[in-house]
Amino acid sequence: MDEKIAKILAGLEEINKAGGQWNISHETGQFLHDLIIEKKPELIVEIGASNGYSTIWLAMAARKINAKIITFEFVPEKVRDLVSNLQKSGLIKYVQIIPDDANKRLGELSEKVDFVFLDGRKNEYLQQLKLLEPKLNSNAIIVADNAISHKHVLEDYLYYVTNEPKYRSELKDIGTGLEISMLGY
Ligand SMILES: C[S@@+](CC[C@H](N)C(=O)[O-])C[C@H]1O[C@@H](n2cnc3c(N)ncnc32)[C@H](O)[C@@H]1O
């Protein structure tokens, strides 16, 4: 990893330890990065960027495979930090930031989506997946964070992806738990 980015990530990990950002763990970031390199999605959608810790991991992978990220974050102070952290990392050109409520804007996506990272409000994952479904490529991958830490709030989402035959879905005990659901397996 680029030394400058490693330092930025380490700094954000310190801020996260102090509280308030709810960033993914380093291990989760590395996992998402490696999964993207392996699957080579062209368009990645993230819901809930916060200050950009997870977005940096996604964008490091996007840079390697020439993919594009669209990320949603609706808290203005977080958007400010997100922009600043992506600029400092030299990764901003891989990311389109939509500083608004994903639930209002997902319907506007005009390109097909290959990879989704859900990390906004936990009780909205299912609604967001349903909004995204018409836009998913036939072999899309959806990764939902907090599948262990918030398994009760995610009950409807987890029931859907594990019972809907079009998905193959598995839970990974990484960070706070990742539910990985694949279409066209
Ligand atoms: C758990 S934090 C995201 C952490 C980030 N993914 C990371 O690991 O670095 C959730 C973020 O989602 C944002 N959020 C929640 N619901 C949203 C929505 N519907 N649209 C846009 N942003 C949303 C919140 O403002 C918050 O910053």
Q: Can you characterise this structure?
A:
There is one protein chain. The chain is of the alpha/beta class. It has helices at residues 3-18, 26-39, 53-65, 76-89, 102-105, 125-132, 155-163; strands spanning 43-47, 68-72, 95-98, 113-118, 136-145, 167-172, 178-183. It has a single domain, classed as Rossmann fold, CATH 3.40.50. 42% of the residues lie in helices and 23% in strands. Strands 3-2-1-4-5-7-6 form a seven-stranded mixed beta sheet, sandwiched between helices. Strand 2, helix 4 and strand 3 (95-98) form a beta-alpha-beta unit. Helix 2 runs parallel beside helix 3. Bound molecules: S-adenosylmethionine. S-adenosylmethionine is lined by residues 22-24, 47-50, 53-54, 72-75, 78, 101-103, 119-121, 124.
CATH superfamily (homologous) name = Vaccinia Virus protein VP39
Q: What is the string of SSEs from the N terminus onward?
A: HHEHEHEHEHEHEE
Unreliable parts:
none
The proportion of residues in beta strands is 15-25%
Question: How does CATH name the architecture?
Answer: 3-Layer(aba) Sandwich
Bound molecules: S-adenosylmethionine
Number of domains: 1
Keywords summarizing the entry:
alpha/beta; globular; Rossmann fold
